[in-house]
Write a structure and sequence with these properties.
heterodimer, A: mainly beta, six-stranded mixed sheet, four-stranded antiparallel sheet, B: mainly beta, seven-stranded mixed sheet
């Protein structure tokens, strides 16, 4: 069975400081990894994905994430946090096997950027 | 990004009635659609995965006879909550994707069963 762990319910960071939102996963097979963001009272939006290739992927709003196969991690990072980055962040893993695909989301991490 | 709509955005119904929620991909053909419930403490629970033209695959613990999913076309999937009860009150979210690309999410439907 596949699983995704976001060990922190909430991350607080001062504006201008770097931020990291952690994600680890467990799958059999090759994972496709995603980060989504949910702003207050808005639907989930895609941020970035890792399918194959470069381990460091860049996404929307200056976010990036690094795929680390040995540590089975896909942490989300941003060099300098903005107050507008405050939102709920979800990590997701997707595995395709025999024409069937399985998607699993983490429980979400609330990011609070303090002015 | 692509646009996914959900209708209605909010519905209140009496216990024992059925409610249908529509999910549409407006500007792309969605080979796969997903249905989720989002609980108050933020977690997103996958209910089922549906591929166009075939039966939905339900997650463990989700009753397929209670949550009927139809994915009759590449742009429309429906979730019908049959004989709804207060414990079915929740925020239901659909998403659509093409291939193994990222999912595009609808804005969600708030269901309240009295």
């Amino acid at each position: 069975a596949q699983s995704v762990a976001q060990p922190e319910d909430q991350v607080n960071v001062a504006e201008g400081n770097p931020l990291t939102v952690k994600c680890t996963y467990s799958v059999s097979g090759n994972p496709y990894l995603f980060w989504y963001v949910q702003y207050p009272n808005r639907g989930l939006q895609f941020l970035l994905k890792y399918i194959t290739g470069d381990n460091l992927v860049k996404g929307s709003y200056g976010f990036e994430a690094e795929f680390n196969k040995s540590q089975t991690s896909f942490h989300l990072k941003k060099p300098s946090a903005l107050v507008s980055d405050s939102a709920l962040y979800f990590c997701a893993v997707r595995v395709v096997s025999g024409g069937y695909q399985k998607v699993t989301f983490g429980t979400g991490t609330k990011l609070q950027v303090i002015p | 990004g692509a646009v996914v709509s959900q209708h209605p955005s909010r519905v209140i119904c009496k216990s024992g009635t059925s409610v249908k929620i529509e999910c549409r991909s407006l500007d792309f053909q969605a080979t796969t659609m997903f249905w989720y419930r989002q609980f108050p403490k933020q977690s997103l629970m996958l209910m089922a995965t549906s591929n166009e033209g075939s039966k939905a695959t339900y997650e463990q613990g989700v009753e397929k006879d209670k949550f009927l999913i139809n994915h009759a076309s590449l742009t429309l999937s429906t979730l019908t909550v049959t004989s709804a009860h207060p414990e079915d009150s929740s925020f239901y979210i659909c998403s659509a994707t093409s291939g193994v690309n990222e999912q595009f999410f609808g804005p969600g439907t708030r269901l309240t069963v009295l």
